[in-house]
Write a structure and sequence with these properties.
Elements (H helix, E strand, L loop, with lengths): L1 H24 L11 H12 L4 H7 L11 E4 L13 E4 L1 H8 L4 H8 L3 H18 L3
Antiparallel strand pairs: 1-2
Length: 136
């Protein structure tokens, strides 16, 4: 058992290194998050804010179906593109997956009954209201 676990760890290390090498050869940048708690905390603060806005978003029902619990969904760009908390909207898991999927807007409207732009506008309005209130 111990030997197989060691083999698995070595295989993971090799596969990560191989992926990094491929990205370097292609001229692409990559970032390794690792397990440094301070760095993870800093990245989460950049992505979700530190002033309680994420908790405010989680306390809201889903924008589409008024369901709980919700995920704080990044609807303006992506987390990797350095968009901060201003692009968060509360979406239940079902609608969060639909929003992030490759489905066309027409298909999402037919199946789930919402448009991506409506959710984005909700996020912008919510952020404006939060900053006016003095949250940021």
């Amino acid at each position: 058992m111990k030997r197989s676990l060691e083999r698995l760890r070595e295989w993971r290390r090799r596969s990560v290194r191989a992926r990094e090498d491929r990205l370097r050869e292609a001229g692409r940048k990559f970032r390794r998050i690792g397990s440094n708690p301070k760095r993870i905390q800093k990245l989460r603060a950049e992505q979700f804010g530190t002033d309680g806005y994420r908790e405010h978003i989680i306390s809201q029902p889903c924008v589409v179906c008024n369901w709980w619990p919700v995920d704080p969904a990044h609807v303006l760009g992506t987390r990797g593109a350095r968009h901060g908390p201003e692009g968060l909207a509360p979406l239940c898991r079902r609608h969060h997956r639909a929003f992030d999927s490759s489905m066309t807007d027409e298909r999402i409207m037919a199946v789930h009954g919402f448009l991506r732009e409506e959710v984005r506008e909700w996020a912008r309005a919510s952020w404006r209201a939060w900053t006016k209130r003095g949250g940021s």
